[in-house]
Specification:
Number of helices: 0
Number of strands: 28
Helix content: under 10%
Shape: globular
Structural class: mainly beta
CATH superfamily: YVTN repeat-like/Quinoprotein amine dehydrogenase
Distance between the termini: 8 Å
Order of helices and strands: EEEEEEEEEEEEEEEEEEEEEEEEEEEE
Largest sheet: 4 strands, antiparallel
Length: about 290
């Protein structure tokens, strides 16, 4: 049974979290104070606080290059953090109101959504330069399916998911869902999970056909989602009721509901341990869930 085993105090309004399993570290974007909290996942303590841009809203880690990418919604930039020293080494200009980031380590590329521009910025992580801007909808979430060379982007106000071929960086399909926010990929089962925060559901998308195969009812205002492939589990963060819905990805049914902090927004899973980290924007904490 999955249970909350620790609660960690971080910065103000934590909205996103990413895990670097190799270094036993989690990075938490604190929107209201312009910082990133660095958590040692072995001790569940904050070991550093990094100043980034204005209103950081998303974070992604490239473990291979020892780098974290933080989207700053307030100033249209991405802060590049060296995870060995926990210092900002570069700042990249992207579109207006960048929300989420995802890294494709194999192609040395990061994808950053910009809600106000309706675009995705493609960043070469070797040079930290934007190499292409892709037009989508009112983009918010993004996830990479490395096996199929595909990125999935949720267009929140448009009720769609844009499918991008990451080899050509072109949109190949647009899928109608609910009112989507977050997205995560289960490569093993060829499924993308998009949270629909307007109607309390999750759309399960077959990534081989790019069709919605099931709509799963979860809690109120689902925001973030993360997948634990070895455990055949997806975790959906319900902002409206302070819970996490646990989905069995083999049956696409909810098997458990876990109470966390107030107004949770972000979630990440440590793929090595199966530990789940939930960023609770309403009470400035991270809930740690032991799931395996």
């Amino acid at each position: 049974m999955s249970v909350v085993t620790a609660t960690i105090t971080v910065g103000t309004s934590p909205v996103a979290v990413a895990v670097d399993a190799a270094s036993h570290t989690a990075y938490v974007a604190n929107m209201s104070d312009g910082t990133v909290s660095v958590i040692d996942t072995r001790t569940n303590t904050v070991t550093a606080t990094i100043t980034v841009g204005t209103n950081p809203g998303g974070v992604a880690v490239d473990a291979a290059s020892h780098t974290a990418y933080v989207t700053n919604t307030g100033d249209g930039t991405v802060s590049v953090i060296d995870t060995r020293t926990n210092t900002v080494t570069d700042t990249i200009k992207v579109g207006r109101y960048p929300g989420a980031a995802a890294v494709d380590a194999a192609s040395h590329t990061a994808y950053v959504t910009s809600y106000d521009d309706g675009t995705v910025s493609v960043i070469d992580t070797r040079t930290n330069t934007v190499t292409k801007t892709i037009t989508v909808g009112h983009a918010y979430g993004v996830a990479i399916d490395g096996a199929s060379h595909t990125a999935y982007v949720t267009n929140s106000d448009d009720g769609t998911v844009s499918v991008i071929d990451t080899r050509s960086n072109t949109v190949t399909k647009t899928i109608t869902v609910g009112h989507p926010y977050g997205v995560a990929i289960d490569e093993a089962s060829h499924t993308a999970y998009a949270t629909n925060h307007g109607d309390g559901t999750v759309s399960a998308i077959d990534t081989q056909t790019n069709t919605v195969t099931k709509t799963i009812t979860v809690g109120a205002w689902p925001y973030g989602v993360a997948v634990d492939e070895p455990a055949h589990t997806a975790y959906v963060i319900n902002y409206g009721d302070g819970t996490v819905s646990v989905i069995d990805t083999r049956t696409n049914t909810v098997t458990n509901t876990i109470t966390v902090g107030k107004s949770p927004e972000g979630v990440a899973v440590d793929p090595t341990t199966g530990t789940v980290y939930v960023a609770n924007a309403g009470d400035n904490t991270v809930s740690v869930i032991s799931a395996r």
